[in-house]
Amino acid sequence: MAIPMPTRQLFIDGEWREPILKKRIPIVNPATEEVIATTEDVDVAVNAARRALSRNKGKDWAKAPGAVRAKYLRAIAAKVNERKTDLAKLEALDCGKPLDEAVWDMDDVAGCFEFYADLAEGLDAKQKAPVSLPMESFKSYVLKQPLGVVGLITPWNYPLLMAVWKVAPSLAAGCTAILKPSELASVTCLELADICREVGLPPGVLNVLTGFGSEAGAPLASHPGVDKIAFTGSFATGSKVMTAAAQLVKPVSMELGGKSPLIVFDDVDLDKAAEWALFGCFWTNGQICSATSRLLVHESIASEFIEKLVKWSKNIKISDPMEEGCRLGPVVSKGQYEKILKFISTAKSEGATILHGGSRPEHLEKGFFIEPTIITDVTTSMQIWREEVFGPVLCVKTFASEDEAIELANDSHYGLGAAVISNDTERCDRISEAFEAGIVWINCSQPCFTQAPWGGVKRSGFGRELGEWGLDNYLSVKQVTLYTSNDPWGWYKSPN
Question: Could you name the active-site residues (predicted)?
Fold first, then answer.
């Protein structure tokens, strides 16, 4: 399938533009290693967003009724549904995820726009919410207003969906936005720009800026015309974004990945638990920030359970993501492919056992494919146990007691997700409270819903996306207090 974008590089102020420096980034199909298209200025995009924010004294967008913005969000959702099949194919081609997953993503994209359309409408009714005061001579209320121009820097593992997690609530709040997708997978974000043009979104409300992080993302973070940065990506890049934003005391929200644990107790159905354990790590080709890639298994079932994991892993279809039934596609790029293999090699040299996988599947000569990999005999000091791999690599360790399991689970710099599988409800409740994580799954791993908050603690970042919390990310709270008495204040002696 051809990528319909050779002439679409930047979407700024409602128009397609060539980058000023004429630089183009090759887009590579990770399943075939073929170049399928090419794609890159910050000042132009920021100026367009600021004009859109203040146009007609803000009445066209920022100060428009929430129902006006909701109309556009619903129109975008309808277009996404209309184009769902093509968008899913583009996503699968661009980042390598199985087509069935990409179709699911597009359903979530449309649902996210619909959800925030509803919240945009509800925002008007929440304005001037009264504040109870202890003095009768004063009345106070709260206004919620858009933060302004926001920079949205998004990753390549869910190119369109994670972009929309930021775009939909920011537009619902009345902000104008500059979206900077990953240079590794930006095709569907440019398609979103085309959809916005089709539905008549006012020029400058959403601008899409492609390019490398150093040339587009970093200047966006430090630009004085950008009022907030929302970032999803690595801890290393996130800390640089925070440093740039801090020079202007610019608010940021950060989702920085993780090394999430999954605890499996000895009272479970082993096959059901094995499938969740693999899904929690191998979904989206293992390229999930919340992947439960540290598996903790009760020692009494460890041997049998690990056998189940291997049997289930051998049954996973690894293929071109466009093939029917594909459940594991290629990782996104050659660089990522080599990085994952290096992690596996280091684990082996440190004394771990590569029990299954760990290399290219024999039946696939081209593409950035890595077999689903299961590693045992790991220690807590090993790199593979402590660092985020971002690939289909599952590490397994045993535990003897609930307290030991919790201690091992929380022994990480990260704190995005965590999961427990057990038939003991009270135990699950105890462990959910004990987990040092922003998201907890019980008897499952990785389900995500637009209505529920998403975000982490520790080095996994701060701030929450999705749900009502996602909208709050893009709103400022203004207190307004009115003196209602006809009496003078009387603090100073009157000169009269």
Answer: 255
Domain membership of residue 28 (yes or no) is: yes
pLDDT of residue 362: 95
Structure tokens at 301: 């079932």
Residue 39: the pLDDT is: 40
Distance of CA 228 to the CA centre of its chain: 17
Is residue 177 domain-shared with residue 287, that is, in the same domain? no
pLDDT at 343: 98
Separation of alpha carbons 98 and 104, rounded Å: 10
- Residues 253, 266, single domain; the answer is no
Q: What range does the domain containing 100 cover?
A: 10-257+460-480
Q: Which two tokens stand for residue 116?
A: 């925030």
Asked if 190 contacts 79 with a C-beta cutoff of 8 angstroms, the reply is no
Q: How big is the chain, counted in residues?
A: 496
Tens digit of pLDDT for each residue in 350-389? Answer: 999 999 999 999 999 999 999 999 999 999 999 999 999 9
The CATH number linked to 434 is 3.40.309.10
Which of 255, 371, 388, 402 does the annotation list as catalytic? 255
In this predicted structure, the answer to whether residue 218 has a pLDDT above a threshold of 90 is: no
Surface-to-core class of residue 247, CB atoms within 10 Å of its CB (0-12 exposed, 13-18 middle, 19+ buried): exposed
Q: Which residue has the tokens 């003196």?
A: 483
403 shares its domain with 348? yes
pTM of the predicted model as reported, rounded to 2 decimal places: 0.93
CB burial of residue 494 (10 Å; 0-12, 13-18, 19+): exposed
Residue 33: CB partners within 8 Å, gap ≥ 6?
A: 334, 366, 367, 368
Higher pLDDT, 93 or 21: 93
Known catalytic residue at 33 = no
Domain shared by 171 and 198, yes or no: yes
Classify residue 449: in a domain, yes or no.
no
Contact 445, 276 (CB under 8 A): yes
- pLDDT tens for each residue of 469-479: 999 999 999 99
3 state SS of 18: coil
User: Is residue 184 one of the residues assigned to a domain?
Assistant: yes
Comparison of pLDDT for 216 and 209, the residue scoring more = 209
Predicted confidence (pLDDT) per residue in 301-336, tens digit: 999 999 999 999 999 999 999 999 999 999 999 999
Closest Cα partner for 193 from 13, 20, 1? 13
- 273 and 244 in a common domain: no
